[in-house]
Design goal:
The protein is an alpha+beta fold. The protein is built from twelve helices and 17 strands. The termini are far apart. The mean pLDDT is 95.
Length: 381
Amino acid sequence: MSAPILPGATIGVLGSGQLGRMFTIAARRLGYRVHTFSPDQDSPTGQVADHEVTASYDDLAAVSAFARDVAAVTFEFENVPSRTVEALGAGTVVRPSGHVLHVTQHRVREKTFLVGAGIPVAPFAVVEASGDIQRGLAQVGLPAILKTASFGYDGKGQVRIAEPDAASAGWATIGWQPAVLEGVVAFACEVSVVVARSADGAMVDYGAIENSHRHHILDVSVWPARIPEATARKAVALARAACEALDVVGVLCVEMFVDAAGDVIVNELAPRPHNSGHLTIDAHVTCQFEQQLRAVCGLPLGTTTARAPAAAMANLLGDEWGRGEPDWAAALALPEVKLHLYGKLEPRPGRKMGHLTATAGTPDEAEALVREARRLLTARA
């Protein structure tokens, strides 16, 4: 194994949103410099990084120059063009690898990989031509979800199909793109597990986190998940198995469905820190962003020991600004509540602007507290 990249070195981040911002804050606290690369200026990451490079991901000359100036590169999103990853790899260490990104940025490749690794997924069929949809419905049943094979997130690029006659119109809705047709899982709850893995194969995790969504966007996460202990162990085992099978060096979040019988089915993989793991910043000794840095730099992974028995996170979308500036003082008057804003200048409905976290003695108490804090932001309006 190569020598570790020590504090004082410069780490590159491809992408410049809130995940890169929180990674940069963790890296600078440990004494690293951070350069960020994206098409955007005055970005959430660029505001806190040492240097912000603004260029297209397809500008391979700029990508190569960026790689020469850093000791390693990591990512805050997985939809990176393969040529960009190759250009980065020619100039520096890239973690996670291009193989990991290649698998996880395409739903067909991801699900095929998981099945090959013996990891359970929802029934699915590949859609590449109009005739594939009806054949797929016969295979997975109704209702079903049609999802674009690439570039879908927060419910974008998805359409629910309840009747066979709606299939063709559903495919038109997502632009006749290659897609995956998934059978709908009758789940009792959704959970995620965030795993960090180093180059030598060592792994740590934060256990199962329980997630609830609103309008297909993550709304509230609660740790630990309120599921039977045996079910939580299944979820962790599947997440670790996926991380090892992919040979991830960095952080992997595995999103899963839990059904009424306690069976766990993998939904999606994210080879980076995840929205549901934001609560680790305030609830655990080593947060998911510091774990990403440690793994990328070849340092020992940190402990995931909790600072409190339970925690919860509530997303703050641009909708919270609909009636004016939120009442930050009201939320922060609650002593166990923390505020994290992302530096985005324009609040828009559905846009993630920040999040709140709360720690408490039980998951129920943590969830109630973080929801109350969010309510107070707009109570005076």
